[in-house]
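Entry 12.
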Amino acid sequence: MDSLNHTGSVGLASTDERIAWLYEHQKQIRDCLNWDSPSLSEAEMIQALLGRLGQSLGAARVTLFKIRSDLTALPIEFESRAHEAVPSMLGWNPPWEICPVLKQTARTQRIAYTHHTFEDPEVLQNPLLYDIFHQFAIASGIACPVLHQNQMLSVLVVHDSEPRHWSADELSLTMMAADQLALATVLQSKSKIEEALRVNQKVFHSTFELAPVGIVLCDDQGRFKSVNQRYCDLLGYSKSELLTMRFQDVTHPEDVDADVDLYQRLIAKEINHFSMEKRYIRKDGSVFWVYLTDSIIWDEHGRFRYAIGVVEDITERKQFEAMLHQAKTTAEEANQRKSLFLANMSHELRTPLNAVIGYSQMMEKELAGPLNDKQKKYAHAILVSGRHLLDMVNDILDLAKIEAGHIALEIQSVDVFAMILDLQDILMPMAEAKDVSLSFEVDPGLSQVLADPARLRQIFFNLISNALKFNRQEGRVFVRLFATHSDDQPWFVGEVADTGIGMPQEKMGELFTQFYQIDSSMSRQHDGAGLGLALTRRLVELHGGTISAQSEEGQGSVFRFKLPNAPTRQVQPGLPSEKQLFA
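Predicted 3D structure (tokens):
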């Protein structure tokens, strides 16, 4: 249960059709109290107002009951129901002392409402009240006091048979209807009625003028019939100047046709309203952006009365959007230049590195002549460092090619057992050197998978070598490969678990970021530039798969990737090879 101040806002700051909706329905409710009509009694006009309010809100039932001076309630005197199936409460005594919403209205003299009656603790704890609400199908409701000079005359009640969220505009319309009922109750003569109408018009005029958005009324040719001060301020014209002009006169030439087309469709009743972003030209010639919402007010015979437009200045938003777009474009261009630079630079580095590695291998094997122990040691150090540097360069090159869109997968059937044996041969010496046990388990039914052989091997190599590198002495690395099925297609899953140093949870979000190390000291202790996992993720995603990690600091980590195992992916056409790219 909630409450809203009786003098609360009616939402004129909205930039859509809410103002037009409120304006139209408020007018329809005011028109129900037609004191100039000799054929309608006061009771008939009140009944018409309740019916109109119920239709506007789409409510099941609207009732009105009077309040005595001692704040006790009289039986329900007026009622409007959406259809005959809605139970009638006419003549029934409302549960004034036990209903939470009615009690709150009586206590605060403000509007109160509930979105879901049968979730209200007071209702659930009171069997009598629960039975009443169930009997009359009251699932949600509004209670609004009808006040005159701070005295509660009666209570206007809206019920719906379904739970619903009452919007601020619906509550505002209900309060406005209560104000009209207050006028109907206290006005005794035509002179008082005319005075009340003048006050009502003054209130509307004040609201119109004080709205924080521009509001205009136009005829069917687009001529301004009324403009508020905010609209004048936006354009820099006085009211008298604008009332001699059309909206076409202040609209940017490039936006006139679109605006006029929508306006004509609106008048032809092809659309109920329209919204658009357009440009206005101020009196001083400067251009600014607005968000415009237009709708039509029709008379009781369906004839055009005027169009109402609501205008919000969005120049700052458009400027901010342009800045964001420019920043995005600049960042993308910089990223492309970076990728191209890295790709070219990495390629240029590989040629001399391969020479260094080749000659150091020849020296280590003493192909050019015998070496003493110190020279052998130096040659081996050159070979190991060269290979390490080449691995880093290759990773940088692969990442740059992926980012530039210059890498293509060659999807084919991969012999899983042959790949695992190959990985064992390569990685087992590293495991033995670290005194870490390395074991593999492959699903017997998964002898073949569909992937790029070289890239799949690279994914496994990066994950397993990482697990070995960051493990502890006498630790373990366990590799699994198994099949699964989800989303109506087969997948295969690779999993690498270790008993290594693990990672703190707060740093897991950066795990697959390029050049990121969980601890900068690790790069010195274990070698690496933080590229392996970033490249692995990109290769997995390039296959259409996903990768995730779980870790506990001091306990170890588990990396798991899942790739589709169906012949649906094709080699990207028209992409240059590495040789063509760097020719």
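Annotation: Residues 264 and 270 are 9 Å apart (CA to CA). The chain is about 45% helix and 20% strand.
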